[in-house]
Amino acid sequence: MEKKYTNGEITVVWNHKDCIHSTNCFKGLSQVFDPRERPWVNMEGADSERIMKQIDLCPSGALSYYKNSEGPKEKVKPVQREGSIVAETHPAQVLLEEGKSYLWCACGKSVDQPFCDMTHKKGSDQLPLVIKPIKTDDVWLCQCKQTKNPPYCDGTHNTL
User: Fold this and answer.
1) Deepest in the core among 53, 96, 106, 159, taking most CB within 10 A?
2) Side-chain half-sphere exposure of 126, counting CA atoms within 13 A
């Protein structure tokens, strides 16, 4: 089910089936996104720029937007990265601790997804990415390996 909300300048699109309930939307901009209210999206709660910035943080891609003057954008299927495979078509929610280092698997072959187990050494040109969190926090890490914001999920898995 897809719902649309507009303020005349932008239209917010919520795709219910893709939502992983990360809570990023209402924790980041509760005056717009409040799941206790109906409708749960209040387009008058903030200016369009703030709403768009918050939606850009949606890890699943369930929330999207378009500028009304431009109309909806056609979804483009990404080209799979050379040397990587799609491990999963959903992100992994993990708690990363401040002061610890983590290796994010970029090749998709690790059995310890989303983390690297050095499987890439057996024939992949994709090297792991070091993550050093500055604070302890729950994050959504990409497992499709196609994100444009590694290691974090950007919703690309929805187009695979």
Assistant:
1) 106
2) 23
- The model scores a pTM over 0.70: no
**How many C-beta neighbours within 10 Å does residue 141 have?**
23
**How far is 151 from 142, CA to CA, in rounded Å?**
6
Are 30 and 70 in contact by the 8 Å Cβ rule? The answer is no
2-67, CATH topology level: Alpha-Beta Plaits (3.30.70)
Q: Which of 60, 144, 132, 142 is nearest to 96 (CA)?
A: 132
pLDDT tens, position by position, 138-151: 999 999 999 888 99
Q: Where are the domains of the chain?
A: 2-67, 92-159
pLDDT at res. 145 = 92
